[in-house]
């Protein structure tokens, strides 16, 4: 059943799909465990769609921001379609989770938000990748370009193996390149990051002013690209 579900999700347009038993979420903060959203959750299915490499090669303000938002919507669309197919075929319950918003938790002083579950950590638990020093999900094939979503289900599905780290040893480009020093190699100060990252045009369109931590990463496009180009990192 697990591989049939994976094939279904990939056929719907996802680039990656991974599985994690709910037992892998023991370190999730209170209120953000999968069972806090769906008490009968036994497994978490994580899907991802990669942004095209080209959106990293231009100013991020309009092009990157627009297609990042569109990809989030596409992830949600695939998650919704997959939950219905899973329920129809398996007879189980499948709960679609929002890829980004909406979410409830917001600390206005710290400008810190948290999704209903951490998609990055769900992806790590499902073997899709590891977290880089920029706190972004790093995947061997797609680098840091994946936008991920999740499905909670009462089906008991075996976890995929954990992924090996793609983060280059000794590389600190993302930390050094952050214009507002929001990164320390392990966490991000959301208030600094948000105030520097998001803006609005005179016409009122949302814009992304900075995606430096993504674009400077030598592994941003994945291991194959890095080996092909021999792109160097600076410590």
Task: Please summarize what this structure is.
The chain has helices at residues 2-11, 34-37, 60-90, 119-125, 173-177, 190-197, 212-215, 223-229, and strands at residues 16-21, 43-50, 94-97, 105-107, 112-114, 130-131, 137-138, 146-153, 198-200, 206-208.
> How many structural domains does the protein architecture include?
2
β-strand amount: 15-25%
With helices defined by DSSP (H or I, 4 residues minimum), what is the helix count? 8
Q: Helical amount among residues, as a percent range?
A: 25-40%
* Assembly context of the chains: single chain
Describe the global form.
Answer: globular
Largest sheet: 4 strands, antiparallel
Structural class given helices, strands, pairing?
alpha+beta
Lateral strand order in the biggest sheet: 1-2-8-3
Q: Can you count the beta strands?
A: 10
Spans of 5+ residues with little confidence (pLDDT < 50)?
Answer: none
Determine the mean pLDDT.
94
Distance between the termini: 45 Å
Q: How are helices and strands ordered from N to C?
A: HEHEHEEEHEEEHHEEHH
Query: What value does the Rg take, in angstroms?
Result: 18 Å
Description:
By secondary structure, the protein is of the alpha+beta class. It has two domains: 2-153, no CATH class; 173-229, no CATH class. It is 32% helix and 18% strand. It is built from eight helices and ten strands. The strands form four sheets. A four-stranded antiparallel sheet has the order 1-2-8-3, with helices on both faces. Strands 4-5 form a two-stranded antiparallel sheet. The protein has a two-stranded antiparallel sheet with strand order 6-7. It is globular and about 50 Å long. The termini are far apart.
């Amino acid at each position: 059943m697990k591989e049939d579900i994976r094939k279904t999700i990939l056929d719907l347009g996802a680039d990656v799909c991974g599985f994690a038993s709910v037992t892998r979420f023991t370190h999730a903060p209170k209120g953000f465990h999968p069972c806090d959203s769906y008490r009968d959750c036994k497994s978490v299915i994580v899907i991802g769609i990669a942004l095209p490499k080209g959106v990293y090669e231009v100013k991020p303000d309009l092009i990157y921001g627009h297609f990042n938002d569109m990809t989030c919507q596409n992830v949600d669309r695939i998650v919704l379609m997959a939950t219905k197919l899973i329920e129809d075929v398996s007879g189980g319950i499948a709960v679609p989770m929002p890829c980004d918003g909406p979410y409830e938790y917001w600390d206005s002083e710290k400008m810190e938000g948290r999704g209903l579950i951490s998609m990055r950590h769900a992806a790590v638990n499902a073997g899709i990748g590891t977290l880089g020093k920029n706190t972004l999900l790093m995947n061997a094939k797609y680098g840091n370009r994946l936008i991920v979503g999740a499905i909670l289900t009462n089906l008991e599905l075996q976890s995929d193996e954990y992924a090996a780290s793609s983060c280059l040893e000794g590389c600190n480009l993302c930390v050094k390149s952050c214009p507002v020093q929001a990164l320390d190699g392990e966490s991000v100060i959301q208030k600094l990051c948000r105030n520097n990252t998001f803006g609005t045009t005179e016409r009122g369109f949302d814009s992304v002013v900075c995606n430096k931590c993504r674009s400077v990463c030598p592994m941003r496009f994945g291991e194959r690209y890095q080996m092909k180009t021999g792109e160097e990192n600076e410590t």
